[in-house]
Amino acid sequence: MSRIPEETIQQVIAATDIVALVGRSVKLRKAGTNYLGLCPFHNERTPSFNVSPSRNTYHCFGCGAGGTAIRFVMEHDGLSFVEAVKRLADAAGIRVEEEVWDANAEAEAKQRSLLLRANREAAEWFHQLLMKHQLAAPAREYLKSRGITAEVAKNWQMGYAPQSTTFYREWMAQQKLPEQVMVEAGIFVQPTEDENGQIGRPYARWRHRLMFPIRNDNSDVIAFSGRILSAEQKGGKYVNSPETPLFSKSRVLFGFDRSKRPISKAGEAIVCEGQIDMIMLYEAGFQNVVAGQGTAFTDLHAKLLKRVCNEIVLCYDSDNAGYAAAEKAFKILSPIGLTVKVAALPQGEDPDSLLRKQGKDALQAVLGNATDFLEYQIRRLRSSAKSDGMVERVRMAEQVAAAISIFTGVAQRITAVNKVAKLLEISEEQLNAMVKRAANEQKRNAGQQKADSTVNVVDEAKKLLSSQHKTAVLLCQMALNDAEVMHWLRESNCEDMLREVPGTELLSLLVHSRHNPSDETSQLAFMAGLEKHQEAAFAQLQAGPRLPGSLEDAKASLYALEFARLQSLIQGAQSKLRQPGLSEAEMERLQQQVVELSALRKECLDRTKGTPNSFVP
């Protein structure tokens, strides 16, 4: 994939006021030269989240989260590294020009571009079929029955997926889109092996379905959702694209590319379940609306909304499934500081049906009367209770206490306890005890999950370090601490060694970076661009005791690695010489290769003699 030049990354980090950035979502107070607040990445009562303006970094002493402004935006808003850099660059007025930096990256960039083209052209083809082709007549009739006009279908580029895979193939041939690209884009399905070990030809994922393009923040089509046109059709009501290099359902909200500005302006997001509900609300003037992708809300969905608003109104169906979805969404949305309300739709209605039957004013009234989740939960529990006696009220209080315990703010929790105690006619003391028990249980579960997550990263870092060549690790440590060693390494001709000696992956990352031991900003930029386990591995190397080695020691280490490379090549050539059936010319070539490599190995060995630190095996 594309790479952002390290000079740009350093400019972005230097230009970003990390105190101001973090302060938008965390209440900070000055503590000496640093700032302190409650960590946004785990629940805590005592502030342990430290922001250092001098180092331009943050660190939580409670959960271990930390890094640069780029890492904060990645973790807090659920963005990729490139997306985080671009957002901060936009805020700082810095132009970002991506560059493709190696053959693999160039291939990935080309493949991504091809997948975007496949999705874009498929969306247009589906749309043209819906609007003009006779095969799509049932889809047009379905839209008419739902009150969806041709103008609305055009606005949202709705489409029709034909029944015949052959029809797809004819279109693919015209567009010169390879079958494998269609599989990787999720438009075609690759069958699994049958009992005879045979794999059939790929086929179309969506057949005779109404199609909705799914777009990213930049409005690129990255996936689709296909809806059945009749109750008799086989398969799920909605079939979404699978996970692809472009699409992850846990990261994308349907319609967010259009509604993010209206949501930001209103300070509130209406969340509904289906694409049609979202579209019809938007077209009716409720433009601060989004929909999920057929799955429960995720942390990334919540963070996406937290970027643009502080309040969520859940507008789900009024059945049991709708209540369960609302309860799950509350547990995700509330802990990150979003206020959650529920709009109670009339029994048997969804947002679209209410709009069609009773009009915009009726829906406006429902949304205007949305109550906070706890009140909605109590009303729901009471409607199914056998009586209103004390036993039933205590049972309800236990369930509501679990929801209250999610609140992180003390004032918020006190207010909630006071309100619920009055509604259920139980004592605040009794309810507080229930909340405390629920909070302790959640804390134990969350602590275990957090510990497991942290252990996983630490374990991955340890595995990575243990897989590295010991001499390469020593050389990494010297280069991390000594600018002279780092400069010499980059000037030395060590590409063959880095490519051919196993266990030099970390050293290769360092050599090909612009990490400067004398420049803290470049160090932060380097660490920000790494995978988490790589970052943890380098952090362990930096945290270790500083080696007393000099440039001569570094040279000896590099020669030792080169010695290992030559030794491996010699052994490989000698192994080939032992193979039967070699031609005389091939034997002569291999023998000559062994002689030449042996001479190079001797030269390499001579270089290390007399050095104060020789790592030759």
Describe this structure in words.
The protein is built from 27 helices and 16 strands. The protein is globular and about 90 Å long. Helix content is 56%, strand content 10%. The two termini are 38 Å apart. Mean pLDDT is 84; it is low at 610-617. The protein has 617 residues and is α+β, with helices and mostly antiparallel strands.
What is the typical, i.e. mean, pLDDT?
A: 84
Q: Radius of gyration, Cα only, in angstroms? A: 30 Å
What percent strand? 5-15%
Please list the strands of the largest sheet in the order they lie side by side. Answer: 1-2-3-4-5
Keywords:
617 residues; alpha+beta; five-stranded antiparallel β-sheet; 27 helices; 16 strands; globular; disordered C terminus
In brief:
By secondary structure, this protein is of the alpha+beta class.
Helix/strand layout:
Elements: H1 6-15, H2 18-23, E1 29-31, E2 34-37, E3 49-52, E4 57-60, E5 66-67, H3 69-77, H4 81-92, H5 103-132, H6 137-145, H7 150-155, E6 159-161, H8 165-175, H9 179-184, E7 188-189, E8 203-204, E9 209-215, E10 221-227, E11 238-240, H10 256-266, E12 268-272, H11 275-283, E13 289-291, H12 299-306, E14 311-314, H13 320-333, E15 339-342, H14 351-358, H15 360-368, E16 371-372, H16 373-384, H17 390-404, H18 410-424, H19 428-466, H20 470-481, H21 483-491, H22 495-500, H23 505-511, H24 520-528, H25 532-543, H26 551-577, H27 584-608
Parallel strand pairs: 12-13, 12-14, 14-15
Antiparallel strand pairs: 1-2, 2-3, 3-4, 4-5, 6-9, 7-8, 9-10, 10-11, 15-16
Helix pairs in contact: 1-4, 1-24, 3-4, 14-15, 16-17, 17-18, 17-19, 18-19, 19-25, 20-21, 20-26, 26-27
